């Protein structure tokens, strides 16, 4: 899909060439819609939201394994429209509605997410909202990390995050004004994610007691300096 400019112009093109399959989310701050091209029958995801789209703009320049392709990102003030690859599959959250995971499944999914995070962190993108709803398992068995609305570009000279974002329970302490998010922020969320996949609960309520317990404990340390320093280091521990 070619790069286009002008939010209103892009909206008119979408209305003419695509049909709505399903409105997936609609709030005052965000709308997420599954679209299908009327002639080509190709599916895409359209997101309109207010906030910061810097991560989406940077992702347009890269193909990151485990991240949906970003086709376009245009803005009108603080209103943003993003077109991205449609991920055909099921979220980890939906799977957890039926059953929890065994260690082997958690190690596999977490390992692939670590590979994705290593690539993202290499271009200074911190996801900041890793949770079961944002981890998709495609119909081909691929693992995709989605929803970069809360993501930020790490700025070494910045003392703390300027905007508090993330999901309570999965967000690291530094996301609430105690420091700046960095790659260890995503490590914290990975620990919570693994515990929830194994037990259905947050580690503060029910810490997993199996072989991965030490890994989860290290990931979820309040002090970022006591966590694994990178997704690569976590990958080795898995």
Quick overview:
31% of the residues lie in helices and 22% in strands.
- Secondary structure: number of strands: 10
* Overall pLDDT level: 90
Give start-end ranges of low-pLDDT stretches. 158-164
Percent of residues in beta strands: 15-25%
Count up the helices. 7
Distance between the termini: 38 Å
What spatial form do the alpha-carbon principal axes imply?
globular
Strand order of the largest sheet: 1-2-3-5-4
* Computed Rg: 18 Å
Tell me what you see in this structure.
It is a single chain. Helix 4 runs antiparallel to helix 5 (183-199). The chain has helices spanning 7-17, 54-59, 92-96, 103-122, 183-199, 213-219, 231-237, and strands spanning 18-26, 30-37, 43-50, 70-76, 79-85, 89-91, 125-126, 135-138, 143-145, 152-153. It is globular, with a radius of gyration of 18 Å. The protein is an alpha+beta fold and 238 residues long. It starts with 6 loop residues before the first helix and ends with a helix. It contains 7 helices and 10 strands. The model is unreliable at 158-164 (pLDDT under 50). The strands form 3 sheets. It has a 5-stranded antiparallel sheet with strand order 1-2-3-5-4. The longest helix has 20 residues, at 103-122.
Considering the chains and any ligands shown, give keywords for the structure.
238 residues, alpha+beta, 3-stranded antiparallel β-sheet, 10 strands, 22% strand, globular
Topology:
Layout: H1 7-17, E1 18-26, E2 30-37, E3 43-50, H2 54-59, E4 70-76, E5 79-85, E6 89-91, H3 92-96, H4 103-122, E7 125-126, E8 135-138, E9 143-145, E10 152-153, H5 183-199, H6 213-219, H7 231-237
Antiparallel strand pairs: 1-2, 2-3, 3-5, 4-5, 6-8, 7-10, 8-9
């Amino acid at each position: 899909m070619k790069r286009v400019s002008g939010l209103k112009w892009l909206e008119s093109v979408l209305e003419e060439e695509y049909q709505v399959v399903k409105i997936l989310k609609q709030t005052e701050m965000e709308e997420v819609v599954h679209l299908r091209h009327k002639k080509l029958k190709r599916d895409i995801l359209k997101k309109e939201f207010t906030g910061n789209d810097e991560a989406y703009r940077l992702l347009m320049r890269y193909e990151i394994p485990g991240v949906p392709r970003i086709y376009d990102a245009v803005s009108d003030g603080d209103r943003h429209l993003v077109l991205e690859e449609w991920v055909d599959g099921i979220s980890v959250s939906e799977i957890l509605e039926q059953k929890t995971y065994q260690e082997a499944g958690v190690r596999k999914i977490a390992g692939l997410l670590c590979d994705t995070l290593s690539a993202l962190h290499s271009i200074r993108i911190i996801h900041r909202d890793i949770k079961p709803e944002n981890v998709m398992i495609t119909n081909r068995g691929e693992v995709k990390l989605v929803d970069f609305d809360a993501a930020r570009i790490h700025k070494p000279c910045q003392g703390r995050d300027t905007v508090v974002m993330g999901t309570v329970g999965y967000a690291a302490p530094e996301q609430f004004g105690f420091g700046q998010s960095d790659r260890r922020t995503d490590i914290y969320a990975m620990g919570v994610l693994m515990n929830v996949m194994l037990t259905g609960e947050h580690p503060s309520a029910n810490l997993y007691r199996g072989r991965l317990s030490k890994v989860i404990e290290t990931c979820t340390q309040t002090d970022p300096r006591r966590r694994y320093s990178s997704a690569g280091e976590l990958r080795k521990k898995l």
